[in-house]
Amino acid sequence: MSSASSDEDVGTEHIFYRDKPQWKDIHPISQDEDEPVVAIDYSPEFTDVFDYFRAIVTKGEKSERALALTQDAVKLNPANYSVWQYRREILKELNKDLHEELGFIEAVIMKQPKNYQVWQHRRVLVEWLNDAKYEKDVTEHAIQKDAKNYHAWQHRQWAIKRFSLYDNEFDFVEKLIEIDVRNNSAWNHRYFVINNSTGFTENVVDREIKFTLNQIKKATENESSWNYLRGLVLHTSEGLSGNKYITSFCEDLYTSGNRSPFLLSLIVDMCSEQVSKGVVDTEYKLERGKALCEELASKVDPIRTNYWKYVAKNLEKCAETCGDFSKII
Amino acid sequence: MNEAFACPDFQPKLHKRLLKHILREIPRNDGTSDPNRVVIAHFAVLGLGILGELDCISDAEKEKLISWVYSLQVVDDDELVSGFQGSPLMNTKENRDKNAPYKWGHITNTYSSLAILLLLGDDLSRVNRKSITKSMKALQNEDGSYTATRLGGTESDMRFVFCAACISYMLKDWSGVNIKSMIEYIHNCISYEQGFGQIEGCEGHSGSTFCALASLYLSNNMDQISDVHKERLIRWLVNKVNYGFSGRTNKPVDTCYSFWTGGALHLLGAYELLAPYEVHRHKIMYTQYKNGGLAKFENYPPDPLHTCLGLAGLSMMKIDPLEDIFVPLIITRKAHEHLKSLHDKWGDSPEENEKCLVL
């Protein structure tokens, strides 16, 4: 794709719009503000460009030169949503090649990957073109620069859902988790892809549980994988304590001496499940849950002492009213 | 514990100086703030309010600020672009007091404008409540979310749902919100981690979570959070607090999340679970800049957002001399009391709205 970064003004002398012969017919219009608050000490270039921007919007001019002016304006301030909006009006009016514009916005995004307006501009263009063939590449580049860029993930998910681009998406996310098992955005994307493609069928949940337990083994203090595991269990009726893979995995890990707060927290919730159902014949009893909360509060996770005391109290309350599902914690 | 967490002293005087300065001017390299200067003013005024230092703004300066905010009000029932602009960017001598192309209200700037007016003690008598609400209604999408401006100029997500809820609460008029559809949107944004994302399918984020909960709180719909979800959400949130506050799983702590994450816990009635606060506070203290202001991270330059939200976060930890805040609106308790007294005056009759001054 063509790149707008090639037309940088580096080395060339700046010419003000007021000195450009092709703009002679336009009268610049300044901002109307008597007594400014939060005043910005605008550079002369900034004032010059925006005085002409106000002039063309007032006149309603949609021309090649106006398009070029908006390009200068967004270079000075890519967060100006009015400029982007007016630029889109011009693009439409002049019936411009939108693929060229996609190239331009890609270059801007690469410089400003955490700006709402640039991604919004791209999204509108993709809608207009009804073609999302570059979206995976563009978002992948942004994700390579920052694996947790919320804007990039949001755009990717929008494009995937809107244009049904689920093919190969699973491999993409698998690679990212392999690179960094703590990348929560990647885990979230894994969930997104399954949820919107195959759905969480029994087979899929089984496969995912096995995958996740393996990932937990690699980094037992990684909250991302534990949270994903909890998310998977929401799609089953048996709960945490009713899934043999999970219970035996957790028991083995605990027995081996592991004291990840996320492991202990999960076992506490298993106790909570069984207590709330009023089950007596189980490893997951009130006393065990309370003891784990105590271990978390005093040794394993002391920064959350008050939280673990609160959980223990809830567990006790739950035992008092056991069997009442509306009060499950 | 105290020695282990010895940290720099809190410097309210320096923060006051910086915020007062921001109200006058911001640096040239902050040109990206140009379309949203009202939001910057909001951070400065709110920050001073939390510091209990609004009196450092003279009456004449307050008047000037209030007039400036009102000069940005747009009343346009034809194009449905009423609200407050974020700056005079599209204002010219020719279109003064007139409607013109691209003179649009913006939902965040409308929320920020109303907040500034309330913090400064204005009675909102010049706010055209009816037109703002009518235009705001047109910003709600079919899925219940909001966009920020008319005519397709901006994205749609949970931030703007929050702004719509704040505006409706402040103007005491919910006719601009289809609440059923708003609640549905909020529900659809619950991630498998139990936090809320900006849009459906997005990663749980404590900023969006705060926005979702505050919208439910302000519209009197907290009962939409089930007991089961509430406990899971509290767990997710307390896990975002590790010697400081982060906003997503496995992300580093950052000053502004002392408000977003802390505020979300506050709305769930669970903020006290974080006590003792000293261990979380010290990370924020290290982001204080030597000339005032708070930054995102240690050794980063300070900015208005992190200064203001950092102060809001510290206020929830009851640090002297900070004022209490009314968390769901992110406003001082005093300003909220002022709002309540205005609401009492307005009464319940919708006809009262008719009497609002037209710009």
From TrEMBL, chain A:
Coiled coil: none
Co-factor(s): Mg(2+)
Pfam families: PPTA
SUPFAM superfamilies, per the entry: Protein prenylyltransferase
Gene Ontology MF: a single term: CAAX-protein geranylgeranyltransferase activity
Enzyme Commission (EC) number: 2.5.1.58, 2.5.1.59
Keywords for the protein's UniProt record, in alphabetical order: Magnesium, Prenyltransferase, Repeat, Transferase
Keyword Nucleotide-binding attributed: no
Catalytic class of the enzyme: transferase
Protein's UniProt keywords contain Repeat: yes
InterPro entries: Prenyl_trans_a (IPR002088)
Domain of life: Eukaryota
PROSITE patterns per record: PFTA (PS51147)
Family in the record: Belongs to the protein prenyltransferase subunit alpha family.
Name used for this protein in its record: Protein farnesyltransferase/geranylgeranyltransferase type-1 subunit alpha
Source organism (scientific name): Cryptolaemus montrouzieri
TrEMBL record, chain B:
Superkingdom, taxonomy of origin: Eukaryota
Cofactor list: Zn(2+)
Signal sequence extent: none
Gene Ontology MF, one: prenyltransferase activity
Gene3D superfamilies: 1.50.10.20
Stored Pfam families: Prenyltrans (PF00432)
Keywords of this entry: Metal-binding, Prenyltransferase, Repeat, Transferase, Zinc
Ranges where the Prenyltransferase alpha-alpha toroid domain occurs: 11-320
InterPro entries per the UniProt record, alphabetical: PGGT1B-like, Prenyltrans, Terpenoid_cyclase/PrenylTrfase
Keyword Transferase (UniProt): yes
The keyword Transferase appears for this protein: yes
Family per similarity comment: Belongs to the protein prenyltransferase subunit beta family.
Full protein name: Prenyltransferase alpha-alpha toroid domain-containing protein
Organism expressing this protein natively: Cryptolaemus montrouzieri
